Structure to design on (563 residues):
């Protein structure tokens, strides 16, 4: 496996126009994972129903089952095991250069006789993970995921009453400002802390009446941070799940409230195409700031192979959500479901309460299963994010660098009729079967595309599409490879539909032709086939590009499987 470049993770990060630079002035993109459900447990990652959808509800259930003392012991073990040094080491070994740490305000606050103070023991645990990041050379982003009172008024911020009470109670605002002043004072000299993500996903649109309070609060928080810390980058999110950037329009002198700012959006369950992020690209030009896709994931691996290449090709830093959760195959780490877990779910839904001894046994097994060594590891998730061999790439996810770089249409050919996906490219997308009129990319548990959801790209004579991928290490090999180390030969499968006996596809690897696929007498444009190719061109560790073009006639391409 590969480690982040030691020269890349070095010194305080800062915004320089559109670019992000490290302490040596070197440009970089953040490529990271979020530590979701660690310091702010989210019920869906526990496979719990609505009755256990947020920290305070999960806490209440556990206290009811095993008592206050048992619950306190449970949570301290939970925090220690959910993210341990082994997790940080593995994240770094996979080539990620950053993590995002979601923090619940209640985790770091201690209420005593109505007076708020800091929970020093919990802050020491945060110090510890930051120390591991320094040791393993990955940046850490501090993310206030659950502000006092709640910034969203939903489960994701541990809201008590499903109201955004951060914006309706001045005490909560002042406490939020105090939290950031405290964190900034504590970590002002920690260069491994990449920046401060002030509020996660404030104010869904049904609470938009408070939108005009967000920027003033951002300004107050930034002023408090700058009283103690002049160097760390500020990260600002839009409203409505970080997707609505109207709060960044109409700023005085068209300037953000600090000179060292990165703007963050989130992306789930929609088209991985340039059109879907154009408003953020436009804002980057207008405000002259770097972009950060701070949360994206919870989909299938085919979507990952497209979406994260989209961010790469547009020079956008990214963070995958999320590193670890229960019973999953679309995050890298899957916590094994404990025996009897359904009894906890049933209890939350109003069913029988498990006896204390039984409940303790179920929860103990869950705690045991949290450690990285006891998780099921899905390396194919990480490979999809990095397009690292072996990997499958849907053909509709050719590169996003634009015409002439990532794709080309034959001279004079008219743009094809649209399917609601990548329409500006003018390429010909079609559904493999059925009569859908638009794509569906909503597969939150990682489900495969249904037969009628599968798309292909149809290449007329002269059309071409290019697919970037990376080679890092042979399957099962844990040793570090450096650029230039010989990896082997590319084995490739293409799922193709040849339009007729005269059609021909040409395949190039890094500009060199490796194969031609010819139609035959039986091809009628109806029958899909899987073509296997073995290149005799050696592959070295690093980035590569595969290009498929229609040399004659026409053909459709559904996916590429590279090994």
């Amino acid at each position: 496996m590969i480690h982040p470049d030691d020269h890349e993770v070095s010194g305080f990060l800062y915004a320089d126009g559109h670019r992000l630079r490290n302490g040596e002035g070197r440009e970089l993109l953040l490529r990271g994972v979020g530590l979701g459900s660690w310091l702010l447990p989210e019920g869906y990652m526990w496979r719990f129903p609505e009755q256990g959808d947020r920290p305070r509800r999960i806490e209440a259930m556990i206290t009811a089952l095993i008592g206050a003392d048992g619950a306190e012991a449970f949570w301290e073990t939970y925090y220690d095991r959910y993210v341990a040094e082994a997790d940080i080491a593995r994240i770094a070994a996979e080539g990620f250069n950053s993590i995002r740490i979601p923090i619940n305000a209640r985790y770091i606050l201690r209420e005593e006789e109505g007076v708020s103070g800091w929970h020093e023991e919990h802050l020491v645990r945060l110090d510890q993970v930051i120390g591991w990041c320094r040791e393993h050379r990955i940046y850490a982003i501090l993310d206030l995921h659950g502000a006092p009172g709640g910034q969203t008024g939903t489960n994701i911020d541990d809201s008590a009453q499903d109201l955004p009470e951060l914006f309706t109670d001045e005490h909560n605002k002042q406490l939020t400002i105090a939290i950031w002043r405290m964190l900034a004072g504590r970590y002002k000299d920690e260069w491994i802390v990449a920046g401060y993500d002030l509020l996660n996903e404030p104010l869904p649109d049904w609470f938009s009446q408070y939108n005009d309070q967000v920027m003033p609060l951002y300004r107050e928080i930034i002023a408090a941070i700058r009283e103690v810390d002049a160097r760390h980058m500020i990260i600002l999110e839009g409203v409505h799940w970080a997707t609505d950037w109207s709060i960044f329009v109409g700023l005085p002198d068209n300037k953000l409230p600090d000179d060292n700012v990165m703007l963050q959006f989130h992306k789930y369950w929609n088209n991985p195409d340039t059109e879907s992020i154009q408003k953020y690209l436009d804002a980057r030009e207008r405000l002259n700031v770097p972009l950060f896709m701070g949360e994206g994931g919870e989909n299938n691996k085919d979507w990952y192979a497209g979406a994260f290449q989209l961010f790469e090709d547009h020079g956008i830093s990214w963070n995958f959500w999320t590193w670890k959760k229960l019973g999953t195959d679309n995050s890298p780490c899957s916590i094994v479901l404990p025996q009897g877990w359904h009894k906890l779910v049933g209890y939350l839904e109003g069913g029988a309460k498990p006896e204390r001894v039984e409940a303790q046994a179920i929860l103990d097994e869950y705690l045991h299963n949290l450690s990285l060594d006891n998780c099921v590891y899905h390396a194919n998730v990480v490979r999809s994010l990095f397009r690292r061999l072996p990997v499958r790439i849907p053909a509709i996810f050719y590169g996003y660098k634009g015409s002439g770089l990532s794709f080309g249409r034959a001279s004079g050919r008219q743009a094809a009729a649209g399917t609601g996906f990548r329409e500006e490219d003018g390429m010909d997308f079609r559904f493999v079967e059925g009569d859908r009129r638009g794509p569906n990319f909503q597969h939150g548990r990682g489900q495969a595309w249904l037969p009628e959801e599968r798309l292909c790209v149809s290449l007329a004579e002269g059309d071409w599409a290019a697919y970037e991928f990376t080679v890092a290490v042979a399957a099962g090999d844990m040793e570090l490879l450096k650029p230039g180390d010989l990896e082997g030969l590319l084995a490739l499968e293409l799922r193709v539909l040849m339009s007729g006996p005269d059609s021909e596809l040409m395949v190039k690897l890094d500009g060199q032709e490796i194969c031609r696929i010819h139609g035959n007498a039986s091809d009628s444009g109806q029958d899909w086939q899987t073509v296997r190719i073995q290149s005799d061109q050696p592959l070295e560790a690093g980035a590569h590009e595969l290009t498929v073009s229609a040399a004659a006639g026409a053909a459709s391409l559904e996916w590429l499987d590279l090994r």
